Amino acid sequence: MTPREKAQELMLKYYNRIEHKLSIDYIGHDWDISKECALIAVDELIKESEINHLFLNAGVSIYYWQEVKKEIEAL
């Protein structure tokens, strides 16, 4: 999955969940809230990837998640 596809997948997952939970007053803010949630999740994945890379030499791609973050920010 490309970083763009992953960014879109994360955004849509959050968007669909939030859309059903918020009251009618906040409908216009669904996308912004989804974006914030997706960025929080990706920041956590980047942080964990950095820790795993430093201490476990794991093959986790920090670069991939950084690219996903850029794609989310561009949405």
How are the elements arranged and paired?
Layout: H1 3-21, H2 30-56, H3 62-74
Helix pairs in contact: 1-2, 1-3, 2-3
Features:
75 residues, mainly alpha, 3 helices, elongated
Describe the protein.
- With 75 residues, the protein is mainly α.
- It is built from three helices and no strands.
- Helix 1 packs across helix 3 (62-74) and helix 2 packs antiparallel against helix 3 (62-74).
- The model has no long low-confidence stretch (mean pLDDT 78).
- 79% of the residues lie in helices and 0% in strands.
- It has helices spanning 3-21, 30-56, 62-74.
- The protein has one domain.
Give the helix/strand class.
mainly alpha
Poorly predicted runs are none
The number of helical elements comes to 3
Radius of gyration, whole Å: 14 Å
Please summarize what this structure is:
The protein is built from 3 helices and no strands.
